[in-house]
Each structure stands twice: as structure tokens, then as C-alpha cells.
Amino acid sequence: MIEGTQNSGAAVRRRVEYLLGEELGNRWDADQQLGWAGIMEISRLLPAKHNREMLAEHGLSLTLLSLLGRLNECHQPTLLARDLAIDLDLSPGRVSRHLSTLEAEGLLIRRHSAGDGRALDVELTDAGRARLAAARQTAVAIVERDFLSRLTPDELVMLARVATKILRSFDATDA
Fold first, then answer.
1. Digit-coded pLDDT (tens) for 114-129
2. Count of C-beta atoms within a 10 Å radius of residue 56
């Protein structure tokens, strides 16, 4: 991070202090503060930047891209909104609104399932598959540009280990 910008170490720590309080400096050393603050800022800045670019170029948020991707990978036509909601960590109501948006844009077709009134038969249209493919190419380029290119191979290995360690602890405690 560059000192003097809104993303300088001091500015990032200050934003975390808004959340955790001023006592942060008394409990955590500088590396702990910047480690936590950095993760919080990265998790805020990268998705926001990527969302803006994806919306500008493809008219799709990352959430809509994930939903199209999930539908594309589904090997069965009948889906429950609650299953999509669980898979994407969204409320069923939000999934329904997103499906309506995608349907209005001609990216998918949905019908109530003949076999289960609670379920929907959802099918991506050719336009949906084409938009998904183009958006995925852009998403890969963005990740390579804004993330992978900024880290050395050794840093990526370390980051992968740290991320795996933290995520596994969530699996063990939050299941």
C-alpha cells in the first residue's frame, strides 16, 4: 500500500478502528493490525471494483455471474430456489429477483416444474450461455490483472496456505 493514499496502512487501520475501536492499538501489534485491516480492505475493494467492471462491460454483477454459472453447471433442469440460495449464500427472495432480472434480459427461461410445484425448471438460453462465456473471460482477466499479477509465486503459495487454514477452521466450527 502507498502511504498518503486512502489505502495507506494508517488509513486502513483507521477504518478498522471504526469497527473494532481505538483499543485495537493497545491489543494488537502493527503486523496484526495491518494483517486484519488488509484482509478487510481487500475483501471490500476487490469485489466492488470487479462488480463495477463486470456491470460496465457485461451488465452482470458478480452475483448474477455466479448465478448464471451455477445454472450452467447444473445437470438437472429442476431447481429449488432455496437450493440456489444456499449454494450462493443468498436469500430465496433475492434469488427469485435475480432470476426475474436474468429472464427479463433473455438470458434464461423458467417454468414451474410439472413434478414439483415448489421447484422451477430453469434453462439458460443461447444468449445466456454466450453472455456467461464472455463475462467469465473478463472475470479471469480481472483476477489475473488485479490479484495474481501483484503477487510472486511464493506469496501466492503462502496466501493459499493461510486462506486454506482459516477456511478449514470455519468448516470445523461453523458447520
1. 777 777 788 889 999 9
2. 9
Count the neighbouring beta carbons within 10 Å of the beta carbon of residue 106: 12
Domain, as residue range, for 35: 1-58
The two beta strands, 78-79 and 120-124, are: antiparallel
Q: Count the neighbouring beta carbons within 10 Å of the beta carbon of residue 16.
A: 19
DSSP class of residue 28 equals S
CA gap 97, 8 in Å, rounded:
38
Question: Whose grid coordinates read 483476477?
Answer: 143
pTM of the entire predicted model: 0.79
Answer yes or no: is 18 within a domain: yes
pLDDT tens-digit readout, 126-152: 999 999 999 999 999 999 999 999 999
Strand segments, DSSP code E, in the chain are: 78-79, 108-112, 120-124
CA–CA separation, 38 and 46 (whole Å): 12
Q: Is residue 44 part of a domain?
A: yes
